[in-house]
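To: structure subgroup
Subject: Chain for Friday's discussion

All,

I'm putting the inputs and outputs inline so they're searchable in the archive.
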Amino acid sequence: MYGSSQFSGIGTYIQRLTDELFKLDQENEYILFLREPEFSKFNPPNKRIKKILTNCAHYSYAEQTRFVFELIKHKFDLIHYPHFNSPVLFRKKSVCTIHDLTPFFYPGHKAASGWRQWAYRAVFRSTVGKASQIIAVSESTKSGIIKHFQVDPSKISVTYEGVDERFKIIENGGIINKTKNQFGITKPYIFNVGVWRSHKNIEGLVRAFNLLKKKYKIEHQLVLGGREDLHYTNVRREINNSPYKNDIIATGYVQESELPILYNDSDLFVLPSFIEGFGLIAIEAQACGTPVISTNTSSMPEVLGDSALFFDPEDTEQMAEQIHKIIFDQNLKSQIISKGLENAKRFNWENCAKQTLEIYKST
């Protein structure tokens, strides 16, 4: 699942964590199991790093069967599963990272059947059960693991994710205007980025945008970044039914070089999710000097503290009101920007790698 273009948040976590680990750890050897196209793209930074090509798709039968034999062929002392999908039959000493419990509350199309839901839960329980240490990306996620899977709290450590250096305030007006022209952005805009899935509550954001347009006559556009998922048609339906659909821009997948620019120029960033394991995109927006309006569920109050305005994701009117406050109260907007920039400084990948390496050493 390595690479942000493949699996957004989890892919970024794997890529940035390994980048820092390979710089930090001058003692141990690492084996990275990769699929195409990331296998061909990845160049090991030194001789202690080895890459292995595997053709086993994630969440597949092959991952549970054929991948076991691939693991057995290679000699290593510890394996780190960066997500809950590990082979049940492979029992070698392990560390796993749990990002959230989303599949059990919002299973999505891949786990729509009862059999799939049972299998997901069985694999998850096996992964956390056999792990010597579990890494949770937030205290909220840690609490969820303990509550729903009765895991010993002493074997769960919390390591926050980090923000890449590319997420910063950009002064270059030319590159900002070029990117806006590319996506057809012609007005001030409200920004959101992420996969189009049911737990992301993008439909709720569109409805809040409709309210803002109708009640306050805002001039803004709504820019939705992220690859459209044809299995989740509610978002597209909500956009098409909006009386303000001409002011709603769906960009499709946003390239890594474009994302900081879109954060920078947006009037505000909205995270409307029903559940988030960490909510890295909100921190990225803050690092770019963008005020954040966030859901008040799961990890977000923990991660954002007093650096954002919050709303109940079930309450579309409350979401609209909080957005309205930022748009029309410039003093409040300045305060949220300042607090956001300070909050973003708490999160960096070097610290994440240091904490992860200590967990390896203690296992």
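Points worth raising on Friday:
The longest strand covers residues 30-34.
The chain has a mean pLDDT of 94.

D.
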